[in-house]
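Why do we care about 3D structure at all? Because function follows from shape, and shape follows, mostly, from sequence. That is the central idea of this module. The next example makes it concrete: a single protein chain, its amino acid sequence, and then its structure expressed as tokens.
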Amino acid sequence: MTVGWLEELLACPACGGKLHGDDREYNCRACNRNYPIRFGIPDFRLQPDPFISIANEVDKVTLLTAGGGGSFDELLGRYYSLSPENPPCLHRHYIASMQAAVQRGEALLHKLEDRFPDVGLSTVLDLGCGTAGMTVAGARRYPHVVGVDVALRWLVIGSRRLAENHVQAALVCANAEFLPFRTGCFDAAVADSVLEHVRDSVRTKDEMLRVLRGGGVFFFTTNNRYSLLPEPHVRLWGFGLLPRRWMKVVAWWIRKTPYRARLHSLRELRALFDDCGEVVLPFFQEQELGAHAEQLRKWWERLRKILIVRFLLAGIVPLYFVFGRKTSTD
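And the structure:
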């Protein structure tokens, strides 16, 4: 969905030039590139989604929205019925995760605010927003929220979620490595389980820092490659212990699904954010994980405060939080 204030933030993702737009497309006169508006969403991708070509994705979204679309839940269910490449045994897991994304987003934004109480948040970037769960949560709290994702199909479904929740935010299709925004235009960036899906995590981090203003803050969550729990995309125990070159083969052999995620270890994350952020063990507020997991949450909150326990479990927890702030010299 395009909103008026978005124009002030946009810049060509290829050259950084000024963009000129109408109802059909945006144009950069500096490098003579055109960026179409598809299904009401500006598409600034320089590279396609790793899972599907742009042409095939447009065809799929056309089928998805035929006959006027439907509710958010109906579109989500219809998408998976149109996606035989995704194994049915995983559909329920994926759908439940997306349906819970607004509540999860509210909890994550609360952590961001608690970590950086001194930062005024007005313009916020939801990087890798998927079906816009955290975008909805952010739009309830901040004046200007932009959700960005490489998957046009998720953004189309997300636009229905925005409408059903009666909130206004901007949705933009783009690569995390080539963001279509001016330098220094966001107060904060949040990214929930995104780093494992990008082509280049170093460039993604650098682009995120570029679009933050001096003193701006960020909060990433990312799944741990070496977690003792099942890998979150294929739901297989011990999957992260495999050599990377075997992962695609095993995922296809057992789940009959392509595997393109690249989960990071604690050491890799610390190296990636060494100059700008801190990798910490996850922490959760009361009832954040649901009533069924409340007792487990209480035990974890006690254990993580014990130094020796933190040391022993640091490498095998399910996920990590990364907090950071852009200095004026970044």
